[in-house]
Every structure is written in C-alpha cells, then in structure tokens.
Amino acid sequence: MRNAQDKKAIVLLSGGLDSATVLAIAMADGYQCHCLSFDYGQRHRFELEAAARIAREAGILHHTIAIDLRASGGSALTGDTEVPKTGIQDMIPVTYVPARNTIFLAHALGWSEVLEINDIFIGVNAIDYSGYPDCRPEFISAFETMANLATKAGVEGTLRIRIRTPLISMSKKEIIQKGISLGVDYSKTHSCYDPLPDGRACGHCDSCRLRKKGFTDAGINDPTRYAHNTQ
Description:
By secondary structure, the chain is of the alpha/beta class. The protein is built from 7 helices and 5 strands; from the N terminus they run E-H-E-H-E-H-E-H-H-E-H-H.
C-alpha cells in the first residue's frame, strides 16, 4: 500500500480552462502529476502550446502524443467543416470528434499501467458543455469498468484504475471559481475552437461562448485575448 506522499496521477492536459483546473485540483490533493496531451490534427493547435506552458511552469513531467484523427474525419475540429458560431447547439455539434476521449483515455490507461498509477484525471463536464457523449458520467463509469478488465494489472489485482472527473457536475462558473481559489492563471489557457492565426480567440464558437459566460457568471474578469467585435 502506497502512503499519501507517494500517490501519483496522470492528468489529461489539453491546455484549456477545464484541464488546467483539473491539474490544479490534483496537485492540491497531493498527487504527483504526469501530464498527457494529444496532437491529433486539431485546428486549434494553440492549445498544445498552452498545455506545454502550464506543465512547464508547474514543473511537471509532460508528454505529447501525436495521433492523426483527421484520417477518420467526422469533425469540424479535424476537417474543413466550418465551426458553428451562431450560438450553443441543442444537438451534438459538428465539433464533436468521434471517440476522442475514448482514444485519449486508452493511451492514458496504457501509460498508467506502465507507471503503476491508479488515478487518471480528465476534465470532462456534463453541465456547461457542448453535449458530447464522451463527457457523460455513464461513459466514464463504463470506461473505468473496461479499464480494469482490459489490463494485466487490473486482472491480477495489482492496480485499480480510477478515472477521476472532479469537474463533471460543476458549472463553468463553479469551475472558474475553483480554479481561481487554487491560483490558476487562466490567461495561460486556450479554449477557442477556431482561433485567429495570431492565437486570439474567435469569441463566437461554443467553447468561447461557454468560457465567456463562465467568467461573467463568476463575476471575474475574463483574461482571454479575443478578436475584435465578439460581443
């Protein structure tokens, strides 16, 4: 049995607001964190620069894995389909990337078994989000069950994989308030799905709208660099 000082976690770090908050939560809970990011052909690759910066400033081991999800298609984030900017969608939007969190968690699972790490943190949220099916509690529960059936360590009982989702039932307002209380510098994060070439956020995509609303609801200044005329 490891003592509390030895507890370790893998944190999926996209470079966005949610994942930066999850990392801060895990660190505050005393975890020694290993961060994992994915270069999957996303149009908003500025998030990878943010992830590397966040991990570096926290002094945390950080790996970026390249997986070209453009090959499978089916998403505006990995293809030429226009990112919707007319308001938050009532249905699963075209920015959904097929099986993205399943693929990401599978890589984290493999790494966790090698490093003998029980806990995998991911910043999925089922309240203020875009309706993605792989952000729901049902998905997380099913993946955790599968993880302990699909690994040698799980079958032999030497490791019990736990998928940690501290944000899953929080509003964006609550997430931001939690992050601020932990010292998260949100100016270092990137959330926009369709940023300008200089990295400024478009201000109109689902992710930008949810981010802006969260800061407004929390009564906290939004430090994001938006393009002009985004109101």
